[in-house]
């Protein structure tokens, strides 16, 4: 092989290497996010550590004045229109990247395809959710009136499971492990919970809509939530303690069923 041919090949290889490096940098910078955590509980609690918001159950904005599942005159539910569609107006902060916006939109798409909930871009609606990049992952419970913030911190909250979790709060759902009949299905290990965190495990007077307890709910916290030491169980399933609780993929079939029952889809 002559010198000119060798030089051409070297230049070609160098160009491919540089192009690959640039493509990888672009891919990592725009389209790839940090892998999802093993469970959304850890991600949410870590993201909310030190938040300026007063939060209960880890990610519900205080004050907790009512349980949306038992809602007087349905005032804390989003309204259904004449086409039997429940529209939830929303705006998204310009701080989110196009990739982050696509994660949020994809998380919303499951509601659109499986329920009568439709998250729609706000025009002039008085009641709406404002999706913002604040200091944690949190939401109010149900429709509170006016602007209500749903926070997805860009450093730790923009994942499909977390987005669906917080949007379920905004629709009016508490965490699964605080439902009224939970003691039949999980044991709360109070000795493994810091006393100042015990209020996060108070049972709520929930309307369970004749649906079974769901260990696979996107609203269920995982075994070590609010533990005083890493690895200590605070929630143990009964009677089979090997049952997996807490997951990150997305809404379960029962989550979807409950939305449809609650909103009469």
Q: List the secondary-structure elements in sequence, H or E.
A: HHEEEHEEEEHEEH
Output the CATH topology: Collagenase (Catalytic Domain)
Distance between the termini: 73 Å
- The CATH homologous superfamily is called Collagenase (Catalytic Domain)
Query: Average pLDDT value?
Result: 80
Work out the strand percent: 5-15%
Q: What Rg is obtained from the alpha carbons, in whole angstroms?
A: 22 Å
Q: Total number of β-strand segments?
A: 9
Q: What would the principal axes of the Cα set say about the shape?
A: globular
Uncertain segments: 3-38, 51-56, 62-69
Can you give me a brief rundown of this structure?
The protein is an alpha/beta fold. Helix content is 29%, strand content 13%.
Structure description:
This protein is of the alpha/beta class. The chain has a single domain (46-199, 215-263), classed as Collagenase (Catalytic Domain). It has helices spanning 3-31, 40-48, 98-114, 160-171, 253-262, and strands spanning 55-56, 60-61, 86-92, 117-121, 128-132, 137-138, 147-152, 186-188, 235-237. The strands form three sheets. A five-stranded mixed beta sheet has the order 4-3-5-7-6. A two-stranded antiparallel ribbon has the order 1-2. The protein is globular and about 50 Å long. The relative contact order is 0.16. The model is unreliable at 3-38, 51-56 and 62-69 (pLDDT under 50). Keywords: Disulfide bond, Hydrolase, Metal-binding, Metalloprotease, Protease, Signal, Zinc, Zymogen. Residues 67-265 form the Peptidase M12A domain.
